Amino acid sequence: MLANKTIAFLGAGSMAEAMISGIVESKTVRNDQVIVSNRCNEDRLIELSNRYGIRGQKRDELNFEEVDIFVLAMKPKDIDNVLSSIKGDIRADQVVLSVLAGIPTAYMEDRLNDNQQVIRVMPNTSSMIGESATAMSPGKHTGMDNVMDAKELLKSIGEVYIIEEAQMDIFTGIAGSGPAYFYYLMEHIEKVGKENGLDIEQARKIGAQTILGAAKMMMTQEEAPEELRKKVTSPNGTTQAGLEALKEYGGGEAISQAVKGAAKRSKEISEKLEKVTIK
Ligand SMILES: NC(=O)C1=CN([C@@H]2O[C@H](COP(=O)(O)OP(=O)(O)OC[C@H]3O[C@@H](n4cnc5c(N)ncnc54)[C@H](O)[C@@H]3O)[C@@H](O)[C@H]2O)C=CC1
Ligand SMILES: O=C(O)[C@@H]1CCC=N1
């Protein structure tokens, strides 16, 4: 149960803001149960606390005792600094939930306290409006009650999938980075729409509604995407011409390579970490 639990974000960038927005909007917890903190930019803390009615606190103002769930939301390169700076202040039964790409639970467990409860999470920025596709993989000491609390919290920012940690890289390639592929697609749709007589706003709305409609069809209809595609495609019609161009220019392969490239980068981040040390 999340009632009366306090959640502290360490890191106040785009991903923290997207999650805070979704959590506050869903009213899963009260606003004063959410704290945001960062390394140095106090203006950003004031901005977020004013915008979402949450508590912004500098690192030295944080009362670690009152926090139940810490959400690590800084860049992967900052992980060592953060783990060493919080180790002395947190207890093993407080949950460390990390959204950092490529940082394994074992890496965090080995650098925090014995039996530290950690959960690796991969959300995306659609958390902002409660539409993230979020994965979570609990660490080896994390109790079921804390897994359930974290799941409830993450439900407030969208759909949640509990996956094997080995699947985190590919999940990151599809869903963590995924929104960017669709935004990139839209940038091209806007551009071609504008070049052919639509204004940018019109092209954006038309393109976004088309993506939204296709996404809803895939969520609600039983047919596989291939079947849905065939229903759009008349023999020798406009769609066939469009798809042929897409194939000729490597559209399908480009999508596969984008997902694989992001997944590979997630794996590389893990591999480049210092080897796990024995405490
Ligand atoms: N942006 C995205 O779409 C997604 C990002 N992520 C992960 O979220 C994390 C953050 O990404 P962004 O928000 O995009 O980055 P960002 O650069 O916008 O924000 C990073 C934040 O961390 C803070 N920070 C740095 N060192 C710190 C420390 N020692 N203690 C406390 N705060 C510290 C910075 O002040 C800044 O507020 C990354 O690890 C990324 O892999 C995961 C899923 C999606
Ligand atoms: O680009 C990144 O590394 C982060 C992780 C997933 C989405 N953004």
TrEMBL record:
GO MF annotation list: pyrroline-5-carboxylate reductase activity
Annotated GO biological process: L-proline biosynthetic process
EC number(s) recorded for this UniProt protein: 1.5.1.2
Main location: cytoplasm
Pathway assignment: Amino-acid biosynthesis; L-proline biosynthesis; L-proline from L-glutamate 5-semialdehyde: step 1/1
Amino-acid positions noted as binding NADP(+) in the UniProt annotation, renumbered to this chain: L10, G11, A12, G13, S14, M15, A73, M74, K75, P76
UniProt cross-references to InterPro entries, sorted A to Z: 6-PGluconate_DH-like_C_sf, NAD(P)-bd_dom_sf, P5C_Rdtase_cat_N, P5CR-like_CS, P5CR_dimer, Pyrroline-COOH_reductase
GO cellular component, one term: cytoplasm
Domain annotation Pyrroline-5-carboxylate reductase dimerisation: ranges: 165-268
Compartment(s) where it occurs, according to its Swiss-Prot or TrEMBL record: Cytoplasm
Keywords, alphabetical: Amino-acid biosynthesis, Cytoplasm, NADP, Oxidoreductase, Proline biosynthesis
NADP recorded as keyword: yes
Regions that span the bilayer: none
Keyword Amino-acid biosynthesis: yes
UniProt domain Pyrroline-5-carboxylate reductase catalytic N-terminal: residue ranges: 6-102
Family statement: Belongs to the pyrroline-5-carboxylate reductase family.
Summary of the function given for this chain in its UniProt record: Catalyzes the reduction of 1-pyrroline-5-carboxylate (PCA) to L-proline.
PANTHER family to which the protein is assigned, alphabetical: PYRROLINE-5-CARBOXYLATE REDUCTASE, PYRROLINE-5-CARBOXYLATE REDUCTASE 1
Name of the protein described by the UniProt record: Pyrroline-5-carboxylate reductase
Species for this entry: Metabacillus arenae
Gene name in the database record: proC
